[in-house]
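To the wet lab folks,

You asked to see what we're planning to order before we commit. Fair enough. Below is the target structure as tokens, and below that is the sequence we designed to fit it. If anything looks off to you, flag it before the synthesis order goes out.
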């Protein structure tokens, strides 16, 4: 009777201790490094001279260890916001001005209106994305003379316009020479 009770029962085994270890989810096969075969006296002498079998190089790149043990890797929750650098101040050397940090709703007409206080405006062009024609947030304004451009850059730099502090500097050259 004791035998019949055990045969119908699970024999005190849990579900995962089956005969097939591959089906068992908890079964983890660990790879144990094998010892290399002992070298003969001749092989050891050849290795000593430098004519023997060379050790295989491991081509796998290992992840570099943290050289400074005192520094821990910073997680995203611990990151501090980057300190923004002030924009590069470019002196006004021509009638062309760079206007940065403008509102995305600013139009060419708005810029002409703003810069007309300092002299005649030859052109005002907001730089836009080629695909959807949305403003990139900066523009180029060309004044009629350099004195008006210098005065506009001096007065409008860090001026609040449409809710943003705009940056007005001299424009860098377009990369081509004007003759």
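Sequence we intend to order:
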């Amino acid at each position: 009777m004791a035998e019949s009770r055990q045969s119908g029962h699970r024999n005190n085994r849990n579900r995962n201790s089956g005969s097939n270890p591959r089906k068992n989810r908890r079964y983890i096969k660990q790879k144990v490094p094998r010892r290399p075969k002992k070298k003969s006296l001749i092989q050891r002498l050849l290795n000593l001279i430098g004519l023997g079998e060379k050790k295989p190089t491991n081509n796998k790149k290992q992840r570099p260890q943290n050289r400074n043990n005192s520094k821990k890797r910073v997680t995203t929750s611990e990151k501090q916001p980057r300190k923004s650098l002030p924009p590069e101040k470019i002196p006004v050397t021509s009638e062309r001005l760079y206007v940065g940090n403008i509102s995305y709703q600013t139009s060419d007409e708005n810029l002409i209106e703003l810069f007309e206080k300092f002299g005649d405006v030859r052109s005002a062009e907001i730089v836009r994305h080629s695909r959807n024609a949305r403003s990139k947030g900066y523009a180029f304004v060309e004044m009629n003379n350099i004195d008006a451009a210098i005065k506009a850059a001096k007065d409008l730099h860090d001026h609040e316009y449409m809710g943003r502090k705009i940056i007005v500097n001299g424009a860098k050259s377009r990369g081509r020479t004007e003759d």
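Structural context that might help your review: Helices lie at 2-8, 41-49, 108-115, 146-156. The chain has a mean pLDDT of 78.

Thanks,
Computational group
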